[in-house]
Amino acid sequence: MPVSGRGGYGRERKLGPLALTVLLHILVIGLLLLQKGAPVPRKIEESLTTVFMPEAKEDKGDKAKAKTEQKEKKRESASAASEPKPTPTPPVEQPKTPPPPIPIGPSWLNMSRAEFAASDISKMARAQRNTGDSGDTGDSSSTYGPGEGPGGVRLYNADWYRKPTDAEIGGYMTASMPRRGWGLIACQTIERYHVDNCQTLGESPLGSGFGRAVREAAWQFLVMPPRINGKPQVGAWVRIRIDYGVTEGGPDKPG
């Protein structure tokens, strides 16, 4: 009994793994059969379908609105172009402040009728001329020797081409000036019997202003230019003396 018992147990131990191996083979064969018998699904070719949709019709209201906007833009651009551009205002120059006027005394001289008549230079007689160097050649007489005039020039006595009027002489006298006196100036003769570059040589009374008055009035004087050998010497210098308050028969003007 003990021998037979060990033999049966050994057979059971050998049959277990064998049965497991057979079972695995059966499962593998079954799986292969299932895979072979299953139908292979066909791949369905899908085609693209193109659907043409009708074009959407534009709304008439949108077109009209767009046209209206375009017209408004054109009007705005036309009005902007027609509007005149503002002209820039030029800078305004500030006026210069003039210097304050220099106070001066009255430019007239109150005179009585007798004094005014006595100062009328148109009624004054001619003084005797110094004819020492005039001779028969027609030369003008020289009052001062060479070098006695401005800059050392020679001075000649002037002859009036036209005597100045009382208004021309009296317009440069002031109320502070004395009633009587004289002014002596030296001037250079220029074209048309006028004189220029006048300078004061003397006056009496000293500081009376008669020299200044004669010099300022000299632009109105018309004198004959000196003559040398009978020919007028335009550009030569002459002396002019004006006496104020001298009665008829006094010295001539110019002196």
From TrEMBL:
Transmembrane stretches in the record are 15-34
| Stretches with biased composition (Basic and acidic residues) | 55-77
Which residues lie in Pro residues bias regions? 85-104
Which UniProt key words apply to this protein? Membrane, Transmembrane, Transmembrane helix
User: Key word Cytoplasm present in the record?
Assistant: no
List, as start-end ranges, the regions of compositional bias called Low complexity. 131-143
Region annotation Disordered: residue ranges? 55-108, 125-151
Lineage, top-rank taxon, reads Bacteria
Q: Give the protein name, as stated in the record.
A: Cell envelope integrity protein TolA
Q: Which organism is it from?
A: Sphingobium nicotianae
Instruction: Output the lineage of the source organism.
Output: Bacteria, Pseudomonadati, Pseudomonadota, Alphaproteobacteria, Sphingomonadales
